[in-house]
Amino acid sequence: MLPRGTAAAALDSVATLAGRPRPAPACVRPDLDGGGPGIALVYHQLDQSLPGQGWDALAHGYLAASAAGAQRLAIRSPGLFGGLAGLAFTAWTLTSDPGMLPAVHDTLVREATARARTLGDYPHGTPVRTFDVVSGLAGVGAYLLCRHHEQQTRHALRAVLSALVALCREDTGTPHWHTPASQIRDAPTRQEFPHGMLNCGLAHGISGPLALLSLALSTGIVVPGHKDAVTRTARWLAAQHVNDAHGPTWAGKIAPAGRPAPSKLSTTSSSWCYGTPGIARSLWLAAAALDDPALRDLALQAIRAVHRRTATRVDAHDAPGLCHGLSGLLHITSRFAHDTKDLELTRAATELTERLLAPNTVTAADGPGYLDGAAGVALALLAAATDCPPAWDRTLLLA
Predict the structure, then answer these.
(1) Are 143 and 92 in contact (CB under 8 A)?
(2) Please, what is the angle between helix 4-18 and helix 343-356, to 10°?
(3) Which one of 92, 209, 262, 385 has the fewest beta carbons within 10 angstroms of its own beta carbon?
(4) Which residues contact 314 (CB under 8 A, 6 or more apart)?
């Protein structure tokens, strides 16, 4: 993806972030967000890119330490970034061994099936944490989709997909996945949306379920109403875009139809979590599943517009991380550039890499975390600088 000199500088930066091969700790935090699984994914990706240097042992050491942490804390939550699904995903990515961490996988299958049944029975008006990528069924489903060829896992995956299909329907013009004000935990957001809200983002909104449903449809894992749900949701999301001087963009959160909107809606976020890049990528995946040229063109124009927009300003999203910073935008841009061979996006990926490589962009204060810290930065740089497939980004539902 990068010119040779920029790629070499990126690899040097990753080497600095990673340190040298060394013994792993015996027990670490088990969450993907800020714990050992994200670090294990970095060392695994380093081993894939630079084999034979000792990174594989360190990756497995952090996986074992993360499993010890989960056992010590008696983690039961299935969530992808704060619960067991991130640990299970890391184990699967490192080993492809269905016998690895069997208790974790079995717990996930049971929890996912039960939660899918609950959401499918009562889908109208629900907190985003029940269905989103970070804590909800879309994130758990991202892991289950990796193991869809296993009968037990496929049964749980189909339950999750069926629940999300039900979630994508409407009741008197309001999507089931709207969040009533009473279910909004954040007080400022609740005041901003006194009649509830519709979250469009990839991390916490409907773009996450849409991405999972689209990837499953493209894989051939289909449940009743599946294609209609992808079509309906993608068209709804496409209809919410607005155009500024640079092209299509989205607000991260909007009011339900017929309800007053906040006086100011931010449509300039350039991040994975809430911004146009994540929404555009979800629509790109839907376009691939549906073979829809209009959706594909909207997604491509939107990601191009992000870079034209950010070239004119320095915004709050100059943090380095994957979630709401430069690394997330770099990786989404790299995915689009790889898929389209678009020279404008390839140049943008190079420019973003150079911004990440600037002195003091990543500091000790950012921590080692996956979403907001050094692990995510290292993974995005490795993906841009090498030919090694970034299988880790299934956790972001980007591919």
Answers:
(1) yes
(2) 40
(3) 262
(4) none
Residue type, 34: G
d(CA 213, CA 1): 28
pTM: 0.96
Q: Are 278 and 203 in contact (CB under 8 A)?
A: yes
- DSSP-assigned letters across all residues of 336-363: HHHHH--HHHHHHHHHHHHHHTSTTSS-
CA distances from 100 to 30, 106, 158, 358 (A): 15, 11, 22, 40
**CB distance 213 to 161 below 8 Å:** yes
Candidates 357, 381, 378; CA nearest to 369 is: 378
CB atoms within 10 A of CB 188: 8
Dmax (CA) of the chain: 60
DSSP 8-state code for residue 175? E
Burial of 27 (0-12, 13-18, 19+ CB in 10 A): middle
* pLDDT above 70 (res 371): yes
pLDDT digits (tens, 9 = 90+) for 149-179: 999 999 999 999 999 999 999 988 899 999 9
Quote the pLDDT of residue 130. Answer: 96
In angstroms, the CA 274 to CA 204 distance is: 8
Distance, CA of 73 to CA of 227 (rounded, Å): 40
Bridging pattern class, strands 248-249 and 242-243: antiparallel
Instruction: Select the more confidently predicted residue: 317 or 192.
Output: 192
Residues 13-53 have pLDDT tens digits of 999 999 999 999 999 999 999 999 999 999 999 999 999 99
